[in-house]
Amino acid sequence: GTGMGLPAAVRERVAAVHRGSTLPERLRFYDVWAARYEQDVAALEYRAPHLAAASLAFAFPAPLAGARLLDVACGTGLVAWELHRRGFRCLHGVDGSSGMLERARSTGLYQELRLCVLGREPLPAPAEHYDAVTVVGALSEGQVPSTVLPELLRVTKPGGFLCLTTRSNPSNLRYKAELEAALGQLERSGAWQKLLAQEVEYWERATTEEESTQGTGYISGVVYIYQKCPVPQLEEG
Questions:
Q1: How many Cβ atoms are within 10 Å of 28's Cβ, its own excluded?
Q2: Locate the Methyltransferase domain: which residues (predicted)?
Q3: Does residue 183 contact residue 155 with C-beta atoms inside 8 Å?
Q4: Which residue of 106, 108, 170, 236 shows the fewest CB atoms closer than 10 Å?
Q5: Are 4 and 212 in contact (CB under 8 A)?
Q6: How many CA atoms lie within 13 A of 129 on its CB side?
């Protein structure tokens, strides 16, 4: 039962990105991985982009087409495809890897794409600029630190939505606990309110037996939706 039915090369590439390498090494790795990334995540049955977009669309007041969204750590544009399918049309993306951004640009789904290493530098956007901000897949051990949450909030309009995901596999549990502590702290301070924290059992295929949830061959994950305060009051009458 090694490898959970995944090709060894896919397992190796996925493991490499979660290993504690330095940030420049990891970004170079993503640059190289960009060409094979979508095939690899298809092999993983990676459901986060679909689940996150569905949750956000559900939370969102219609109409969606005019809403301005920032897709943080956008990668090759998997989240943009899912958002576009659900009626979102004004999509901006940032990523730390120029190789990934090149692929995202070729989708034609983004109005704007910028290079930005989150955690190292601020987002290239003014305050209260976006109706929604998504961070799908990047909030995990060795990737984007949970200290970026205030920066995500800064660029979100009051009443706007933040859609975040993380993994619940054993090697990410310490990070997940830190993330949830930071999420809770911002909620208690009145910065945002939690609308959803959805645990999903079959998030993606596990790359090792140790990571798999109770021998299912999959790891679990979670989708969070927050709404930035103050939430606009509905007009009377």
A1: 14
A2: 70-160
A3: no
A4: 236
A5: yes
A6: 15
Position 1 pLDDT exceeds 50: no
Domain ranges of the chain: 8-228
Q: H/E/C letters for each residue in 29-91?
A: HHHHHHHHHHHHHHHCCCCHHHHHHHHHHHHCCCCCCCCEEEEECCCCCHHHHHHHHCCCCEE
pLDDT beyond 50 at 2: no
Question: In the block, which residue shows the tokens 């090694």?
Answer: 2
pLDDT in tens, 167-212: 999 999 999 999 999 999 999 999 999 999 999 999 999 988 888 8
Q: What percent of the chain has pLDDT over 90?
A: 72
Residue with tokens 């982009």: 49
Tokens representing 26 are 């990891």
Token pair recorded at residue 173: 């549990």
Strand 90-95 with 68-72, pairing: parallel
